[in-house]
Amino acid sequence: MYSRRDRIIAFLMLTPSLILLAIFVYFFIGQTAYFSITDWGNNPTEKPPLAENVDRDIIELENYERLMTDLLEFRFRNSLVNTFFFTLFFLAGCLILGFLLAFLLDQRIVAEGVFRTIFLYPMSLSFVVTGTIWRWLFQPRGGINVLPEKLTNLTIGGTHIFPESWRTEPLDYGWLESRTTLWGFNWADVPQYLTYIGLALLFIAVFNSLFGDRWRSLASLSIVLVIVRFMYAIGMLPQWYTARFFENIIPDTITLLVIVMGMLAVINFIRGSSDLSELRLPAVLLGVRIIILLFYELEVYDTAFFRDTLPELLTYGILALGGFSVFTAIQEERYKPVIYLGSAIALVYAANELGWWENFWLPLDTPLAEIQKGYNAALSGIIIAAVWQMSGYVMALFLAGIRGVPEELREAARVDGCAEWQVYMHIIMPNLRAVALSAIIILGHISLKIFDLVFAMAGPDKGTTMVPGLLLYTDGFRGSQFAKGSAIAVVMLVLVSLVIIPYLYSNLRTERRT
Amino acid sequence: MTAYQTQRILWRTTVYILLVLVSLVFLLPLYVVVVTALKEPIEIRVERAWDFPSKLYWQSFKDAWLELRPQFRNSLVLTVNATAISAVMGSLNGYVLAKWRIPGEKVLFPLMLFGMFIPYQAILIPLFTFLSDIGLSGGLPGLVLVHVVYGLPITTLIFRNFYVQIPDEIIEASAIDGAGFFNIYTRVVFPLSLPAFVVVIIWQFTQIWNEFLFAVMLTKDDTAPITVPLAALAGGEAVQWNFPMAGAIIAALPTVLVYIIMGRYFIRGLLAGSIKG
Amino acid sequence: MKRRLLVLLTLCMLVTATVVPGITQAQDGELSGDLEIFSWWAGDDGGPAIEALIALYSERHPGVEVINATVTGGSGVNARAVLQTRMLGGDPPDSFQVHAGQELIGTWVIADRMEDLTFLYEQEGWFDAFPAGLIELLTYEGGIYSVPLNIHRSNVLWYNPAQLETWGVAVPATWDDFLAACPTLQDQGVTPLVVGEAWTVNHLWESVALSVLGVDAWNGIWTGETDPAGPEMIDVWAKFGEILACTNINEDAGSLTWQQAVDRVVDGGAAFNVMGDWAAGYMATTLELVPGEGFGWAPAPGTDGVFMMLSDSFGLPNGVANRDNTIAWLALLGSVEGQDTFNSLKGSIPARVDADTANAELYNAYLQSAAADWSADTIVGSLAHGLVANQRFMNDFNVVMEVFLTSSSADAAAQAMAAVCAQSGACG
């Protein structure tokens, strides 16, 4: 259709952008990645990091290892935790508020333009300005904390508007100064948590892909196992350690199951509605029952068995079943990314369990290890400021998405007797999925990269609000630890890529299909 | 009055009450900024952040404007140029990617997009060295280049997603009429792209105007955009909050104006398909 | 009247001409081009002082266009990032602000980024003009690498004399005195000791450490003679913890700039503040208080007779664009007139021994007392302001502080400090 000459022109038009991006993105990232495997700045007295012909040696992954294991690098690990919670609440806040506002604005509002502008204007400000304003508002002795007092004590012409009982004192919440940590956890347990998340993803994918398939029962069994293993891990099942449960309840249940299922299978076979294949599961269960019986008879079990050995066996069982299920599910294209992710995480965990890198993930038991891991309340203020700034954007996206649904479709639903909320639930929401996804991507990458807002609000040296972007700036630039800074940069890039690449991938795939 | 009507009135009242409440919350920070900027320095105390100034003090705005004027101009030059160039380049890229089969396009496009997501601190040192090598460090042209390049992924994405929706038949028809690459662009594609341009311009204008890291790293005093002296006002050891607040208002004015004027088109532009991707 | 002014002016110029030969030389040289001065002095904090100095320079060298490049924000963190990036990119400013001591030597001189200024010292006769101990701080392997502009004292305790009287509290001579007065103040709803954002806490720590360790052990940290995880250091952290309990650290410390912390003392919301003597400049110039009446000062508890110093200086980076202009700038900095112009506005004492510190119009009561202490006291270097330890140590000291603030464990903090010592190579 198009002439050859025009095609060449088209390609040439793209070339400048390609070359620029090749240099500014990939070449620079390459350099940063190279710096991250050197010792640039690790030894400031022997090898001055700022020398003209700087003396850099390659030390491979040592910088990364230090970030994960060195006691002094707890700030980096905390910054990852902070990023996790920041992303979670920032996304949730923006999506919920953004949707709510879009929903309200969609109700044929008078002066919609005014409201829209009010919700959108924060987005036009720079993070430096937002940070400055909100720092002022979160001063512990002023701002938000004195607002309830001011409002309830409002007077008009000397008389109070609100009754005596409404009036309050200033709050004393610390906001950015807060040192409270919620939902604390032990850093050494993180691989396990990751495993559970990964395995859960894996099995959900497998389960879905196998829906109606003959391996479905196997997959659901695996899910049950994962849940049990998880409950063990977080200590939700202390009373299950009692021997009674294992001695009586489980074997009896299994026996019962075997009998019922076996009978059903036999009946079905006799009625001619199925072959004997339905006997497989009861047969397996019977096998399990016999093994348990053997355990008891041979007195293999004791309390330690249930506390230690069984969970471990469960883990291996899960891994084996999971692997097997993955193998069968792999043909199903759309679950591949999830499966790869899950497998990767499971592999990391397995490798860790097997001690492939002993020092990689230290079980920290020094005093230094007990430093705030969890959600730092000081982040709340920053999350509020960020939500204030970006929820208007989400509102605009959702509003555009809602308006994109043809009015006839909505009208038709109304005619069918749907209430307004039902119209939203069944007609509009499904159409917003793509919009929500692109909002998540935009907001997600902002939150993974967040830096100036924290800097302007909380300053550079507050551990409770540390984020990787800021740490890279303070340690990499102020402390001249360029290699470490580069390593942090690479970790950030990997995190961002984990969000972005599957998205780009699936986006392009769907396009190819349509 | 039927039950349905009562219900309806109740519902609409709730909607308006909710909207007004949320609007108030959104406007609170603005109120504080304006009030603080209009206070005399002596009157500013955290405990009294919400009080109205006893008398309006406009001097801060005059002072801040005098201080920020040269950088305000720099910012305008920078933003207008960088926005225009990255919008035009993005539009051409989007056109090529949406309507011309390019070898390796499936790989090239995601590779281009990825540039949007990198944390910029990560590439600062190579970037600075590179700009010094090509003689562009310390001035506005260098900063324009940087903003154009890092703006390309998003502008390309928005335009591409927009152009994909233009039916191929229209373009094929022009091609059969003998129109070449540029003719199709100028006659068919470009006239249709106004909504996408609005989105891109708003996005880029805000991003570039508000950007701080590159601004402080890549310019010198006389070429700095406005965020640099603004951060100096706000982030310095100043105790007189009226001054940075007035500065913040001045610095934010152009972008806020852009939103007020173009807000309607922004949503329309988003609606026109730029959000799909 | 007019004639007398004229005579005075001529006299002034004559004095300058005889005392500062370098400047007259430069004056003849008809300099031209640019001069970019890089610092983090802007706004209240040193802004007017550096501008006055630049004005003086422009008067001397009208052909030179001076670019006052200030990068502010969060305790110089932006300035440092910009400076490092520019140096690495091969585009140094003509001269930049740097603290004397390790910040200069351990960062820039060992990286071979600075030009040796011995020739300038010889030419200007500065070996007698500056204290030998100060020059020592600028010296590395025989070369001298910057020109000191001023001296600040770090270990000063500030208070409001009238308020102390109403509360019935005396100025504490030791930290134990302070701890004894602490409940009295707390009962009256007063913060006994106010601290501000992160670096001001480090600033307090160095005064506490100095008082617990004493001069020799303090210096010993940086030569390797004091074990950073040893019992003495654990004592320091323990004492520091007790003192912190008398501060606003868990209330609103992080939201206060150092000026706002000083404001608390002035307003009567807090009794004491340990801050460098730029606080005197702030209170005397910005708040217009009379030294000795509106505010009082004493050496930080337990550090009487010791002057913990820091000094701002400017150097000559290698390969600058306008070397001659920079040398003229440095000559001006080191001159009596340059030092008096700057320091009277900055609120610091001049680095030169022969500056006009007796002049009460230039130097207020506080500065005169500081000048007296400067010549009488034992001098030690400040940690929080880059004199005794390199950048890396200073940056990572924030980690140590974080460890202490979250764990409240003196042991853990001392361990962390030992680790930082080992990694940064700053402790001998």
What would you say this structure looks like, in words?
The complex is a heterotrimer of chains A (514), B (277) and C (428). With 514 residues, chain A is an all-alpha fold. Chain A has helices at 4-36, 62-69, 74-105, 112-120, 127-137, 147-152, 190-209, 216-233, 243-271, 280-298, 303-329, 336-353, 379-403, 407-415, 420-431, 433-449, 452-458, 468-478, 482-513; strands at residues 155-156, 159-160, 181-182, 375-376. In chain A, the strands form 2 sheets. Chain A has a two-stranded antiparallel sheet with strand order 1-2. Chain A is globular, with a radius of gyration of 29 Å. In chain B, helix 6 (168-176) packs antiparallel against helix 7 and helix 8 (194-210) packs antiparallel against helix 11 (242-274). Chain B is flat and about 70 Å long. The longest helix of chain B has 41 residues, at 59-99. The model of chain B has no long low-confidence stretch (mean pLDDT 86). Chain C is of the alpha/beta class. Chain C has 2 domains: 17-150 and 312-371, D-Maltodextrin-Binding Protein, domain 2; 153-308 and 379-424, 3-Layer(aba) Sandwich (D-Maltodextrin-Binding Protein, domain 2). Chain C has 19 helices and 15 strands. The longest helix of chain C is centred in the middle third of the chain and has 26 residues, at 198-223. The relative contact order of chain C is 0.17. The model of chain C is unreliable at 1-28 (pLDDT under 50). The chains are: A mainly alpha (514), B mainly alpha (277), C alpha/beta (428). Chains A and B meet through helix 1, helix 3, helix 4, helix 5 and helix 13 of A and helix 1, helix 2, helix 3, helix 4 and helix 5 of B.
pLDDT < 50 stretches of chain A: 238-242, 357-365
Shape of chain A, please? globular
- The number of helical elements of chain A comes to 19
Q: What percent strand of chain A?
A: under 5%
Note the gap between the termini of chain A: 21 Å
The level-1 CATH class of the largest domain in chain C: Alpha Beta
The global form of chain C is: globular
- Judged by helices, strands and strand pairing, the structural class of chain A is mainly alpha
